[in-house]
Amino acid sequence: MPKRALIEHRPWLLASIVAALAFYFVQDSVLAEIWRTAIKGLAVGCLAFYAIRRANGTNATLIAAVMMFGALGDMGIEFDFRLGGGLFFVGHLIATWLYLRNPREHHAVSQTALAAALLVGTPLVSWFLSGDAMVTLYAAALGLMAATAWMSRFPRYRVGIGAVLFVVSDWLIFSNLGTFDLGVLPDYLIWPCYFGGQFLIATGVVQTLRHELAEEDDQLP
């Protein structure tokens, strides 16, 4: 029954998962580059359509835009690293706007400290791994996105952890740019960490918005 419900009511989520699995197994294959790139973009692109179909309002539009820029970045980076990074940079700024619009009312000291660590540590670690100033500038936006996600009202065990997974996936990418050799780990972990992070972010935000909409409907006379 859960599988049937997924197919009938959340087809974009199912399509996203299928595309993500397909890309993981074909990314090093002899499949034509244009097809690999299209499959890659489809994985997160479907999350954008999921957000639009399952939620309404400005917050839903913003999370859909975040996922769409993620999908464009996924495809762009296959042709030019700077193009992909620029598209992701814009996505991080939109995500930061979304999270700042939705602050959490109360913050534990430990959670605030973790957000500060993400804000400062993300660009610092990125510089250590890559030694590249432009990568570090990009990572500043990445760290801001992760920190504000952690401090937003959206569930930390989905959206917050999803943002952290995004950071980890980028750190794995940056390790390939510098002298810090992680062996084959980036090859196996970049895509699962990245897609898993985006999936948690999209579903965490959308399900929060849907839950709030249902509560509002219940309160109507």
From TrEMBL:
Q: Which domain of life is it from?
A: Bacteria
Give me the segments passing through the membrane.
12-27, 59-77, 83-100, 112-129, 135-152, 159-177, 189-209
Question: What is the membrane topology listed in the Swiss-Prot or TrEMBL record?
Answer: Multi-pass membrane protein
| Localization annotation | Membrane
Pfam families assigned to the protein according to its UniProt record, in alphabetical order: YhhN
Concerning InterPro entries, the annotation shows:
TMEM86B-like
Q: Which UniProt keywords apply?
A: Membrane, Transmembrane, Transmembrane helix
Q: Which family does it belong to?
A: Belongs to the TMEM86 family.
Q: What is this protein called?
A: Lysoplasmalogenase
